[in-house]
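User: Can you help me understand a structure? I only have the sequence.
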Amino acid sequence: MNIRTLLVALLVTITSQAQNYIDLANLSYSTTPQNYFENSEESTAVNELEFQFTFPKVLDEKNTFISNVMIESNALRLDPTYLKTNTLASLSLALGFNHKYSDRLAITYLIIPKIASDLDLITSDGFQIGGLALATLKKNENFSWKMGLYANTEEFGLFLVPYAGFYYLSPSKRFEAYITTINGDINYMLTDKINIGGDVNGLTSSYALSDPYFGSTTEYFAKNTTEFFAYLRYPLYKGLYLKAKAGYSITRTYKVFEESDQVDLGLSLFYLGDDRNQLNTPLAKGALFKLELLYRFNL
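Assistant: Let's start by predicting it. Here is the structure, written out as tokens:
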């Protein structure tokens, strides 16, 4: 999940019964200053690039077809003993539909195949398959509840994310809040053009490695972060917005494991039966800076 993972992108962009817009496309680039490895004088920059595009097509008054493409890449050194910068990338395709059961209740169903690896050699080891069921329950024109479940076959095993939260838009449409168990965004229209806000996102993803770096058996890379940002959003053109963000990684783990080193079950931020042996040196927490280009379609 790249809550700025595929799940987070989808949860924000899928039409809800209270939202009056759809975020169709998002391009973002984030970087950190040089981050030191723990107990080492060596450091690495962490650069991330993401692009996602969502295409909803109304089929009839009850059903909307949804497709989403997301491309993500991460560039960093895996360990202080390696000077090479590794690029870990993924390509996800989500397909499904939103069904409106009543004026109050709508549920989205998606299947999400993904390839995630270091791209040196693409094999079946990098293939993952996931799914999402997301229910939106409308309370009134400005407030809706959201609940759902995301599942994916990560490199470390089955990963499940129960999901619950709400979306609120003030009657003046100047204040907006999107709060859930895995991510959140609160923002306010300071002027007719300038929007200020803050968001927090949990992120879990994993990538197959084509060559072993720390032994002789196949390995994988696992990423788990929680990031907080304060941001300023400004319109550049009709529907096109620029977001400038600064933040901090509340938690950050970039770990390499042997392919056979699995967990019994990944459950949101927790892992059951996790006695894995990390092969690389941990990376310290640090500041984050991010730029986003966002295309929003008003309904």
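Now, to help you interpret it: The radius of gyration is 19 Å. The CA atoms of residues 34 and 44 lie 5 Å apart. Let me know which part you'd like to focus on.
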